Amino acid sequence: MLMDKTAFHRCLIINADDFGISEKTNSGIIESREKGVLTSASLMVLRPAAKAAAQYAAKDARLSVGLHVELDEWSCDQGPWRLVRQRVNTQDPGAVAIELRLQLERFRDLTGRNPTHLDSHQHIHTNAHLVPIFQEVARDLGVTLRSCGSTVQYCGAFFGADEHMIPRPEFVTPANLIHLIDRLPMGITEISTHPGWDMSLESEYRHARLAEVKTLCNPAVRQAIADRGVRLISFADVNSPPVATPGDAPG
Q1: What are the start-end ranges of the E strands in the chain?
Q2: Domain 4-239's class?
Q3: What angle separates helix 131-141 from helix 93-111, to the nearest 10 degrees?
Q4: I need a labelling partner for 6 at 20 to 30 A (CA). Which of 23, 81, 140, 185 fits?
C-alpha cells in the first residue's frame, strides 16, 4: 500500500476512461498524457482500437492502465434513458462473473500484464448486486476498484453534461478543473475524464471530449497542481510509494 504519510498529502490520479474505443479517442488520450496531466487510463478490451491502445501503453511503462469492463450501455440523448447495447444480462450475477473474467483475460492477452485498477463503463459495477463480484476480482489482483474502497476517493465532477446528458461545457473548462483541484481532500483522489478527438462516436458526449483534451493540456492546470502542492500519481503508485515531486506527471 501507499505509505501512510500520503494521508497527510493531497494526491491526485487523473484517469481517462474509454481507452481503445476508437483510434481518434486513443489520440486524444495520448495527447492528454504526453502534453497534459493524465496519469492513468482504463482500457475497453472489446473495442476496435484496444490493440493499438495496448501497444502504446507498452511503450509508456509509467502509464497506469486499468480494465474498463463493458456489460451494457445506456443512452438518453436528452430524453428517457434506454438500453442501446448489452453484452450480458446484468441481472444475472453468474453471467457477469464469467464475462468479467473473460475481459480480464483479454486484457492480459493485449497488454501482457494485469490491470492496475478496475472500473466499468457507465459505472455498472456499482450496482449493489454486482459490487461483490467486482470486489472479489479486485482483491485477487490487489488493485483499486473505483468507488468501492476507502483508499482512493472518486470524483466524477469533471464531466461536460448533467445527469440527463444535457451539455454543460462549463464543467470541462480549466477553471472548473482547477476548482476541483482546490477542493481535493487529504489522501488520494481519482478525477475521471473522457478525452478524445473522435466526432464519429455514437455518443452525445463526443463534443465534450474535445474540450476535455484541451483542458487537460492547458498549462494553467499543471501550474495549479504545482502551486497547490498536489502530488500527481497513478493507480500503479497506490501499491508503491510515489516518487514524483508536486506538480510532476509520471513519465
Answers
A1: 10-19, 40-43, 64-69, 72-75, 82-86, 117-120, 144-145, 152-155, 187-193, 231-232
A2: alpha beta
A3: 30
A4: 140
Compute the distance between CA of residue 45 and CA of residue 43 in angstroms, rounded to an integer.
6
Say whether 81 sits in a helix, a strand or coil.
Answer: coil
Q: State the residue for C-alpha cell 492513468.
A: 40
* CB burial readout 200-227, b (16+ within 10 A) else e: eeebebbebbbbbbbbbbbeebbebbee
- Is 18 catalytic? The answer is no
pLDDT 10s digits, 158-199: 999 888 788 899 999 999 999 999 999 999 999 999 999 999
Closest CA to 42 of 137, 110, 116, 98: 116
Distance of alpha carbon 177 from alpha carbon 118, whole angstroms: 24
Instruction: With beta carbons less than 8 A apart as the criterion, state whether 236 and 188 touch.
Output: no
Query: Which residue in the list 4, 17, 182, 227 is annotated as catalytic?
Result: 17
